[in-house]
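Appendix B, Record 12. Input sequence as logged:
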Amino acid sequence: MGSRHRLALRRELELLARTPARVDDDPRRILGTAVGWELFKKSLHMHHTAEDNALWPAMREAAAGRPDDLALLAAMEAEHEAIDPLIEAIDAALADRESGPQRLGDLTDALAAGLTGHLKHEEDEALPLIQAIVTEQQWQHFGQVNARLVGPDAPRILPWLLDGASEQTIATMPAPLPEPARMAYRNEWQPAYAALDLWGAGTTR
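Logged structural output:
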């Protein structure tokens, strides 16, 4: 997972954590209809799927016979598996009329803690291992798998990733895209994203 993606996830986790405390509306209604929640889930699923399918297997093969490295990779996959049930539980709470803000707050807190811990674990230990054993060809393959998973969702996912980014990042990150896609980002995707009410009226980004 790239550094920009980790920043985007942390940004959205902060907004997600505020939702159960909202007093201006039912937090379940806010989150249940929030475009930000759907984008967060979609982007997280795409990148975890790319890691599980295209990155960890290649690293396991390269780390064969190295128990500590294999244990780290197993931990990365286990942390992914622990996050999915929390997202499912939040969606179930949103659909349950008997579930109140306290239940939703407990679940969003658990998701924030679990994902924040995973991101830090990834940065502290998995990224150095990636840099040590993943070949340029394997890394390119991972990027290609990630791009295929984003596919038709790029008009929303790319502006989501670049939300709050520096001007330099905004200028360089879309650079590998074909010219028509770069033009679409500037003229259509980013303005449409900017007009979205991601986390309900009154939420400050």
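The chain has a mean pLDDT of 90.
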